[in-house]
Each structure stands twice: as C-alpha cells, then as structure tokens.
Amino acid sequence: MESSRSFKHALFKSLSLLLVTPNFTQAQSDTSSLTACLTDAGVSTIIDTDAAWANSTQAWALRFKPDPAAVAYPSDRAQLASTLACARNASVKVSALAGGHSFAAYGYGNDGNLVVSVAAFNEMSYDPSTTLLTYGSGNRVGPVSKYLWDGYGRHFPHVRHGRPGLAGSSIGGGFGSTSRFLGTPMDNLESVEYMLYNGSIVNVGKGDDLFWAAQGAGASFGVLLSLTTRTWQPIHANAVNFTLSLGTANISAGAEALMAIQEYALNEAPDEFAIRWSLTAPPYSGVGYFYGDPEEFDAAVKPLMDRLPSYANMTKSVFDFWSQESYTSPGVNLTDGGSSPGRSLYMQSLCLTADKPLTYDLAYLLYEKTTYAFNRTDIRKSGYLDLWGGVSRDISDGDTSYSHGNNLWLIRWEANAVVEWPADGVEYLKNQMLPFEQALTDADIPLRGFANYRDTNLTEAQWSERLYGGGNFEKLKAIKAKVDPTGMFTNNAQSIPLP
After folding, report:
1. How far apart (Å, rounded) are the C-alpha atoms in residues 467 and 350?
2. How far apart are CA 308 and CA 321, in angstroms?
C-alpha cells in the first residue's frame, strides 16, 4: 500500500470507523432510510416509483434484470462522499456504474445494491511534459480517444468500440487492436485515484498493492475517480487493414490454418501484426491490422502466406492512422462514443499461453464442438480468436492482479438472443465449450479467462483461478481486508470477497 502520510491517515480513519460502521454481511435494510439520506445530502436519486426507473436500471446486457435499491447521481466528489456515507449508514453495498457495457451487468451488481453513477466524473487532461493522459472514470472510450488524437495526435490502447466505459474496460484488460505491440489498456496505466468506502481519497501507482489490485479487479476496492495512462505517437502515418480468408474449406483445413497462424505468431510475426480470426466458421476468415511500415507489410506476412494453402486469399487497404482507428473501433470519432444497442447474450472466454499453445487436435475440437455443433435458431452464434502474444511475453502473471502473462490467444464464444433469451441457452452454450475445456485440462493446459469477458456460470473456485491464479486471488483478499474492511464493494457474484 501507499506509504504516504495522507494515505496512512486515511487508512487509520477507515479502520477506526469499523467501530461504528454497520456490518455489510447483515441483511440489507429497506431503501427508505437510504433515499432519505441521499435526499438530505442533495444527491439526485432515482427509485422504483420514479418514471425514469426503467431506463436507469436497463442493463446493456439484456439477459440481466437489475433490481437495485436506488440509483444515485452524485455531481462531484463531495456528493460522492455523502453517497457512500448514506450507504454505510443503511448497510447497503455499492456498485459504481460508468459506461454500463459489462457483458455481465456487473455495473449494477447484486439486487439491493446502491448503484452510483460516475457519469459526472468526465474530466480529461493531457500533460505534454510526461505524455500522460488522465481521464475521469465516467468517460467513454470514444470521447477520450478523440480528445487525445484531435488535440495531440496521440493514441492509447483501448477496446474496439467507442461506446464502452473507458475505466471499466481498461481495468478488466481491454485487449484492443494495438495491444500486441503496446500492451493492454490495463498494462499502460500509471496510476489510479480512488474514493474508499469511508470517503477518503487515495492516488496510487506502480509498486502499490491497491494499484496492483486495480489492474484486473478494480471495482472491488472502491469508486474509481480517475485513471492516468501512458500514450503513444504513431511512428507511421498510415496503417494496413487486411482480410484473410480460406472460404468454405473443411474443418481439417480450418484447423490447419489456425495452426499456421499460431506458428507464424510464435516465430516470425512482428508485434505490430494483429488478427482476429473468426470462430463461426465456415467460412474460415479473419480481419487484421498492421501498424508497422505499410511498405513492409507484404514481406512481413509472406511467412504466413507460405504456410497457408494456395487458395488462401488476402486483401488489404491502407488508411491513415485515425481512419484505421475509426474502422477498428466504431464510434471512436464521435463525441458520445457512438451507439451500441443492448444484447441478450451469454459469453465464455479462455486464454492460452505461448508455452502451452493450441495443437491441431485442440483446434479441430474447438471448431467441432462450437460452431459446427451449433444448431439453434432462437440464438445467433458469435465468436473469434484474438491473437495476443507480442509484448505479453514480457509480462508475468504476478505483475497485475489479473493473470495474463505470456498470453497467446484470447478465445471468445457467445450467442445472442433473436428475441428473448431461452431458458436453456446458458446450459446449451456451456455444454459446447466443456469438451474443449476438458481437453485442455487433459493436456495439462490451465483454464484461463479474460476479466472483461466474464463467464457468469462459473463457481468462485473456477473464476478466481481462471482470472487470478498463481496466488493472486489470496493476495487480493488480503488487500481487500485493508482497504474495504466492511465489504462495501463486494457487490457482485465475482467481486473479490473478504478473507
């Protein structure tokens, strides 16, 4: 933890309040005292009798139907501190809501929580002397990306859409099109600013336990106020956008193509090469990007094309960097981040490392049990494999709370409801991935997940190991006891619990 005098004072104050702070493991009280307190504090609040309730509690992930105690909209830090005080006094847990784009609706948390919108914390600033960017936790990806590019011609890694909240997507990994050579948004963070459960404010950076915890499990420790990240100026004015396709080849050819991409990634691929390979084959295809010198692209991908069958087809276009950004991340050039209509879905994710990569048999099984076995008309399949690798080779699992050292593949498999989510939808999709998971286990390949792509159908033992393996989960619980001793922010099914 930060050793500064101010932080020690804040931590002492937090611990001393335990004598008078309600126990959050007790049953949560009714909302009357909570809303009365918020009203007295002047905090704008929506409750279930208000006309705006349905809209305020509509999760982007439509499969979930949040039922919070109330939704509070503090306008500044003083009101946020008052909001947390009201929650403490009412024995209500708190869920901080930013972009609200969680695939698991975790911004709303468990039923009965006080949802606290951080939309008012939308400041952003750039320091030319350090090239660091600081943004408030209420910002979306698009507005901050556009601010940095329009004003300073610089970039930071981010997820592939302008609409999601920037804070939440960054602390959950946030793998994007430039992450193979720049790292994930989480890896680029320099510091984060929190308001803790007792209203005290701390700013923590590298070497601090709370900063380490924020990189993968940030919502479990307090309300994020702002984050500071490194930025990058493109070396080349233009970037390459390409598509690679094998058409409607058979499953054997598809598995062999995936192995060819993997061999290329492990041996020759420059870090500036990125590809997202579809899992909904056939057809077998992918979309990719190259951020090196466009004049060198053909030579750079020749080893890959030499490994693929002669009928593999690659097409390419060259765009200026910002046009490429607008293509890879829809809405990034719009002041509100664009639109992203809600979806009713169930998602699963797995990551494989470079030292335990796919084999041909595993690739074949993955295709066979997911896209080839899929036979539903009430849900639509979707999935892909993002090539990770690159600079992750220099990361160890213990560097951040989310274990992602040396990741090579990010696999995502999901389905979206055509109309309403079917009662057996989760079980159906889960059963599609189980054979692949079992084959990984049999091959002594650990099951690793992705913090932004939460599988809501996992037990604590499963999600904690997949996301926070190698002892990270136990360390997180120890930090939790120090900075959130009442468990105010143990607010959803995959929050870090108290020891």
Report:
1. 10
2. 29
How many helices (H) does the chain have, and how many strands (E)? 16, 16
Token pair 């959050």 in the structure block, residue:
24
State the Cα–Cα distance between residues 60 and 99, nearest whole angstrom.
9
Q: Environment class of residue 497 by beta-carbon count within 10 Å: exposed (0-12), middle (13-18) or buried (19+)?
A: middle
DSSP state of 448: B
State the Cα–Cα distance between residues 479 and 288, nearest whole angstrom: 39
Give 265-289 pLDDT, tens digit per residue: 999 999 999 999 999 999 999 999 9
pTM exceeds 0.90, yes or no: yes
**Given phi > 0 = left and psi -120 to 50 = alpha, else beta, which region is 389?**
left
Q: What is the token pair recorded at 225?
A: 């106020």
Nearest to 316 by CA among 245, 264, 386, 249: 245
Are 251 and 364 a contacting pair, CB within 8 Å?
A: yes
Cβ neighbours, 10 Å, residue 405: 19
C-alpha torsion 486→488→492→495, nearest 10: -60
Taking residue 461's Cβ as centre, other Cβ atoms within 10 Å add up to: 9
Given CA atoms 283, 181, 449, 439 in this order, what sign does their dihedral have? Answer: positive
